[in-house]
Design brief:
By secondary structure, the protein is an alpha+beta fold. The chain has 2 domains: 51-140, Hemagglutinin Ectodomain, Chain B (Alpha-Beta Complex), CATH 3.90.20.20; 142-201, Head domain of nucleotide exchange factor GrpE (Nucleotide Exchange Factor Grpe, Chain A, domain 2, Roll), CATH 2.30.22. The chain contains 5 helices and 6 strands; from the N terminus they run ααααββββββα. It has helices at residues 23-27, 39-42, 51-114, 119-139, 206-212, and strands at 142-144, 157-163, 173-178, 181-183, 186-189, 191-196. The strands form 2 sheets. The chain has a 3-stranded antiparallel beta sheet with strand order 1-4-5. It starts with 22 loop residues before the first helix and ends with a helix.
Length: 213
């Protein structure tokens, strides 16, 4: 009787083991299955923000900004007021400094008059002082109004009375009573004047009186 020549080892190759046990399979395993988590993955999410605390902080910030703005504005207001007062004082000082020579000459004229000097010389000295005053006003940017012979203008003239005048027509300034002045385009004081109401009516002749009788 013939025996089976095929042994269990001759029936084929060895039975393959588990593929996961092979070195090649172990080497090909994904690294994500074994590496530790990164710090970014391990950080927990930030805690939620308290909305009331956020609004309170924003309110305090805006309040602080507002207080700073109010303080800056108050300092600016005080500084502006101080600068305005300083400018007024400097303006007054400049005017008085310009007028000092006028006062000096008036004082000299008054002293000269007390000595019993010639009245004509005193009058000439006063006229010179007045001329000096007008020159000083001109240097300061002002000027004296010259209303006589000009039509009456209520913007710069103040009528005190009306007079008859053969020299000036009705509505024309005939007499300057108090001089007026202006600084640039601004009126400092109107001129007080007497306005002409025309020539006087002719006096009745003697013939007219006899005819009336």
């Amino acid at each position: 009787m013939a025996t089976n020549q095929n042994s269990p080892d001759d029936n084929g190759s060895e039975t393959p083991g588990n593929a996961s046990d092979t070195p090649e399979t172990a080497a090909s395993t994904s690294p994500t299955q074994s590496r530790p988590p990164t710090p970014a993955e391990s950080v927990s999410p930030p805690p939620p923000v308290d909305p009331v605390a956020a609004v309170t902080a924003e309110r305090d910030k805006l309040k602080d900004q507002l207080l700073r703005t109010l303080a800056d504005f108050d300092n600016y207001r005080k500084r502006s007021k101080r600068d305005e007062q300083d400018a007024k004082h400097r303006g007054r000082e400049d005017v008085l400094r310009e007028l000092l020579p006028v006062f000096d000459n008036l004082e000299r004229a008054a002293t000269y008059a007390k000595t019993g000097a010639d009245a004509k010389a005193i009058a000439e000295g006063v006229v010179m002082v007045l001329k000096l005053f007008e020159d000083t006003v001109g240097r300061l940017g002002g000027q004296r109004l010259r209303p006589v012979g000009q039509p009456f203008d209520p913007n710069i003239h103040e009528a005190i009375q009306q007079v008859e005048s053969a020299e000036h027509a009705a509505g024309i300034v005939a007499i300057e009573l108090v001089p007026g002045y202006q600084l640039g385009e601004r009126l400092l004081r109107p001129a007080m004047v007497a306005v002409s109401k025309g020539a006087p009516a002719p006096a009745p002749s003697s013939d007219d009186d006899s005819n009336a009788n």
